Amino acid sequence: MGDLELFSKYKNDADFSIYIKMILALAFVKIDDIYNSVNLLYDELPEEIFPLLEWFEENYIGTVVRNRCRNPLFPPIIWNVHDRVLNKDDRTNNHAEAANRRLNLQMAVDHPTLWAFISCLRRIQSGRDTFFCQLETGKSPPKKKKKIHRRR
Question: How far is 5 from 51, CA to CA, in rounded Å?
C-alpha cells in the first residue's frame, strides 16, 4: 500500500478503507470460493485498488499466465481461516509468536553468533528440563500474574 500511496487514503477515507478490508476479508471465504470472490472484487472495487488486488492475487492466491497456473508464494491453505473459524480453532500463530518473542528476550541480542545461539538454546533447554522434572515430582507450576488493564 505504501508503494501505491494508498495508505493515507486508507487512513482518511472510510469508504476506501472498506474496499481494502474487502481484500483482507478473503481470509474468511471458503477456499473453493476464493477465485470467484476475487473476480467479484474486480467488479466492485475502484480501479486504483487493482494493483494491490493483483499483487494479493499473485502472492496469496495464484494466477494464470499463458494457460499455466502460477502458484502463489503463500497459498490459501496457509492463510485462509474459514475452516478454523467454523471449527473454533486458533486463527493465528500467536503461540509461535510468543515462543519467538520469549526466545528473542532470552537471546538479549538481535543477531547472535551461531555459537552464542547454540549456547542460549542449551541454557533454555536446561531450564525447561528442570521445570518439567519439578512438575513430574509434584511441584505446582508458578501462578500466572494477573494482567492489570490501565486506562489511558
Answer: 11
